[in-house]
Amino acid sequence: MAYGIRLRVAGQWALFTRPEMKSERVSYDVMTPSAARGILEAIHWKPAIQWIVDEIHVLEPIRFQSIRRNEVGAKIPSRAVAAAMRTGNIGTLGLAIEDSRQQRASTVLVDVAYVICARFALTAKAGADDNEGKHLEIFRRRALKGQCFHQPCLGTREFPAQFELIEADAAAHPAIGETRDLGFMLYDIDHAGDRGSMFFRATLDKGVMKVPPPGSPEIRR
Fold it and tell me: Name one GO molecular function term (predicted).
């Protein structure tokens, strides 16, 4: 895989929320491609590159646990934010947290570990000094040092992800031997278009979920 990387990520809990679930949070069985991309971008991202996730390897058995989480059921109105920016008065931006707090049940994954196999492509914003080798070395150096722009998470900020770069000559991390149909899974959000959700039919084959490339006919609205 040209200019590809392998990154091991792990955590105590993970929540890759199914969008069809409304009031309660229920996780997909496996990390979504968009969540994997978010972890990679937390380590290194520039407008000149686009991360493309090829495979996600599941290293630990898929186990769920039901918990209850405090969530905020309201947000500051956009009109109030615009008014504060216009007038410089932030007094109207207060939010009564205690009044809007809600306790909701969540079905989360427990003791997760994955290997993200990904690559990147140069975008139309790449300059003359941008090349694949340069960005690969930047990512490699930052990942080895544990550097990131913000703490990567496993679906939600409450569940931080620990990450470790797997060098090209390192021994393979064995995936679980499970094969199953995962159903339709969120692929990504069309940020460049109408911001609609994109899905694909996900399958776990001996612990490996292959992700279709951007523009594939397997990706549906």
Answer: endonuclease activity
Alpha-carbon 196 to chain mean position: 17
Domain range for 28: 5-68+105-220
Q: Count the domains in the chain.
A: 1
Total Cβ atoms within 10 A of residue 34: 17
pLDDT in single tens digits along all 221 residues of the chain: 456 899 999 999 999 999 888 678 999 999 999 999 999 999 999 999 999 999 999 999 999 999 987 776 667 777 777 877 888 777 666 654 556 667 788 999 999 999 999 998 888 888 888 888 889 999 999 999 999 999 999 999 999 999 999 988 777 789 999 999 999 999 998 877 777 899 999 999 999 999 999 989 999 98
Cβ atoms of 33 and 114 closer than 8 Å:
no
For residue 42, being part of any structural domain is answered with yes
CATH number at residue 173: 3.30.70.2660
Q: How far apart are CA 144 and CA 148, in angstroms?
A: 11
Residue 195 lies in a domain: yes
Residue 84: count other Cβ atoms within 10 Å of its Cβ: 15
Task: Name the token pair of 178.
Answer: 């499970």
Amino acid found at 151? Q
The residue to which tokens 């989480």 are assigned: 69
Determine how β-strand 208-210 pairs with β-strand 49-58.
antiparallel
Report which of 33, 27, 28 is spatially closest to residue 56, judged by C-alpha positions. 33
Q: Report the alpha-carbon distance of residue 144 to residue 182 in Å, rounded.
A: 32
